[in-house]
Amino acid sequence: MENEGKKKIWSEYQKDIADDHFFYVRSCIRQSFFPGSEQFFLDFMRKRLGKDVFENPSHTTCTGIGYHSDIVPFSTIMTVIARHFALMKESGYKNIAISCVTSFGIYTEIVETWKHFPEELEKTREYLYKATGRVFDIPENMAHTSDIIYKFRDEIAANAKNLLVNRQTGEPLKVVEHIGCHYSKMFPKYGVGGAEFPRVLSGMVEAWGGEVVDYPERRHCCGFGFRQYLVQANRGYSISNTLKKFNSMQPYKPDLILTNCPGCNMFMDKWQYTIKEMDGTTFGVNGESIPVLTYEELAGLVLGYNPWDLGLQYHMVQSEPLLRKMGIEFDKRDKFATKDGKQMPVPENLINA
Amino acid sequence: MENYHDLLMQDIRFEEGLKACMNCGVCTAICPAAEFYDYDPRKIVDTVQTGDNHEIETLLKSETIWYCGECMSCKTRCPRGNTPALVIMSLRTLSQKLGFFTESEKGRQQFAIKRSVGENIFKYGYCVATYAVSPEMHAEQGPIWKYILENTRDIYERLGGQINELGAGPLRKIPDDARDELRKIFDVTGGTELFNTIEEHSKRKAAEMGLQFNDQGIDNEYFIEVYTANNKTHTTT
Lengths: 353, 237
Description:
heterodimer, A: about 350 residues, alpha/beta, Glutathione S-transferase Yfyf (Class Pi), Chain A, domain 2, Rossmann fold, four-stranded parallel beta sheet, 18 helices, B: about 240 residues, mainly alpha, Fumarate Reductase Iron-sulfur Protein, Chain B, domain 2, 2 domains, globular
């Protein structure tokens, strides 16, 4: 009886994540800055787990960055999303897997809007039909791709080649996890653990042997702020808010930062570089900077993927300190090589290199 | 004079975002923008709630409404279920519709966003794409970004990308018919109209400020002005 009550209390923090047959929608930022992450996700799902993940080449931007910088009207983005749902319907899928936290937030906002304002749903249907002749259904299941990795975290742990453990000391690695505001701050029920107890990343970290760092500014925004980064004159907002997080996490000596949202990843990586350039400050131990990984990159390392096939070398903060701690062997010559093994030039002035 | 509160009520985000504010200030306490700018979302919501037309017009022409970063952290914490950021978004939309956005330095930046992210949507089918992020406009991206742009094809080929080629995959070319559909959606839903409104008022403002304005692209004095201008009066310290 007691257990049933507890289950009921926590039920709103649970998320039902589909098991198979996903319609995959890419992210402008993830595919531009971390294409290796999307490549890992598809490889892992299709080849390792044998799942059906379909991608329709006609899928476009969701226009979310334009919407949240206020140049795209709500009715426009609702219809763009409706077109994605139409492509999904035409392809025969009911479960959507979304690769971007901004997009995910948009999808949740729109689906909830349609529930509360059914006339908006009807208007969107009319707009989409008039513009494209398409019709759509609302997905039965909406998952951010991190939800899906979370769902299969124990399968990853069972096949782990490298745990989140310092091979020399045997201590668990200390991991800062950053969820990204739009994942569950707007509509908590769509996120694993809701807004109060987000588990999507911490669940992965614990399953793979690491220790989650709880620090004062853990839930503070990464500092993107859309127009506050897009326009050069506003970037002080962005870097100042990220700095607040770095200063807050530094005393806990994190070994890595793990991100849910590709935008957050880019900022926490690139602002470390910028702050170091500005006044020499670094936030890791021994003058190093803290590697910032996507959940796909981390899952890939745990499963023993080649770090250079995951694209770790294309962050500003290089990941070698982390690879050494995890005991991962890597080939320096392969780091900046093409798919066919041809050597490319070696970039200069990277951090932690 | 139009009744701005009535116009705001036509935006469902306003209806959804503001029920009744009791001025507790939790939104301001949690707000990343309030940490950086001289900014208090509680005051904005309070002003709008009064329905005072003159005060709302002042707000629509102000710098203040452009300080929010739309992180939406305020939605989680408001004890009354309001979303100050949605109120801000509806104010921004109205400010643009009425042409008031050009009255503030931060509001004028909408032109730069339209000419960059906005144009990318039609040109590429993406809001952001690797080849549209220039190192000159993004020094913070560091030497790795310049390197990526110089070796794009080799790098993305190894990571599964197929830049400017048709078919599934990251950074694929978005087919012409898909981009045509995007444009038609913008035409039907008011997206094109908003783009045109931003252009029209920005052109007028450029003439007023005596700055060169081109009908396309970012290589003009007005773009550079709105993209870089910072009169240093926006923050408290």
